[in-house]
Specification:
By secondary structure, the chain is α+β, with helices and mostly antiparallel strands. It has eight helices and 19 strands. Helix 4 packs across helix 5 and helix 5 packs parallel to helix 8. It is elongated and about 80 Å long.
Length: about 300
């Protein structure tokens, strides 16, 4: 048996069990069994059908703001499978499998809807905006969030906080990413900040209202292209960091017998950076104008060529 687990929105943390052989209307109307009381949800928003053999389909009922499955707006009945994510209003629901006994008890006692209302009441006591889209990136990766926001053309600022105090902000205009800021440091630039944020695997997120702030160096790249570049960098950095942890201190070889003219322009820039600011690899990544993986690759090459050495 399956249930819909709320991983973002007003009902975050709640679950609604699905009954085989039953249709379920989802919407804002309070008389519905699965009522999501928020402005972005239509009175009768979507219909979910569970057949007797467990096949689950979802259909949008002409809602104003659309229904999305795994980041794509649906226009016809769509089959759901375990792990699929559904966006309705500010709620993101994940189809999960549950123990049969626990589900049957909830259905028999009729406790599913009251439990959701309790979840919403608790959430209202800890959040100032009930309609905020919030959640954990352990449940919903940043890349998946951004794809959802891109398809649904969201406006706002995706704010992310980690337990270590790190903060990130990704600015959205009609679903398109136009700026990213990490720990308030504009010196990193929006592209480098964005790619670093995509490497985060834990933390809490909230989609905040749009800001009127404009930036001189705004990004003008399609979201899919940004995500593709970020994932490529993540893969590259994993391989490099396995050989060269970013906490490793590095310094130039002295005396240096090898000619600098043999270096590429990028390698020469990184060598000069390390020469002027001896310290850990991470410090060089922060100061370099190059993407992180290009800087890290240049450092690794300079170590192999014996222009740099571990301090």
């Amino acid at each position: 048996m399956f249930s819909l687990k709320f991983i973002s929105g007003k009902y975050q943390g709640g679950e609604f069990p699905l009954t085989p052989g039953k249709q379920l209307i989802i919407g804002r109307s309070p008389e519905l069994e699965l009522a999501l009381v928020e402005d972005m949800v239509s009175r009768k928003h979507a219909k979910l059908t569970v057949t007797g053999d467990g096949r689950i389909t979802l259909e949008d009922l002409g809602s104003s703001n659309g229904t999305f499955v795994n980041g794509e707006q649906i226009t016809r009945p769509t089959r759901l499978r375990e792990g699929d994510r559904v966006l309705i209003g500010t709620s993101i629901l994940k189809l999960v499998q549950q123990g049969t006994g626990e589900m049957e008890a909830a259905l028999r006692q009729g406790t599913a809807r009251p439990n959701l209302e309790t979840v919403a009441k608790v959430a209202s006591q800890r959040k100032t905006r009930l309609t905020s889209m919030t959640g954990n990136i352990e449940e919903l990766a940043i890349a998946d969030l951004l794809q959802l926001f891109g398809t649904s053309r969201k406006n706002g600022v995706l704010a992310i906080k980690r337990e270590d105090g790190s903060e990130a902000r990704i600015y959205l205009r009609q679903g398109k990413i136009y700026y990213a800021l990490l720990n308030g440091d504009h010196r990193l630039g929006p592209l480098k900040s964005f790619r670093r944020i995509l490497r985060w695997q834990s933390g809490e997120f909230e989609l905040c209202p749009p800001e009127a702030t404009e930036f001189d160096d705004e990004l003008d790249v399609a979201t899919d292209t940004l995500l593709l570049g970020a994932h490529h960098e993540i893969d590259e950095l994993k391989h490099i960091e396995a050989e060269l942890p970013f906490a490793t201190k590095i310094r130039p070889v002295r005396p240096l017998d090898k000619p600098l003219r043999d270096l590429t322009p990028e390698q020469l820039d990184v060598f000069q950076l390390v020469y002027n600011h001896i310290g850990p690899v991470q410090s060089a990544l922060d100061r370099s104008h190059l993407p992180d993986f290009e800087t890290a690759r240049a450092i690794l090459d300079l170590l192999h060529l014996e222009y740099l050495q571990r301090a």
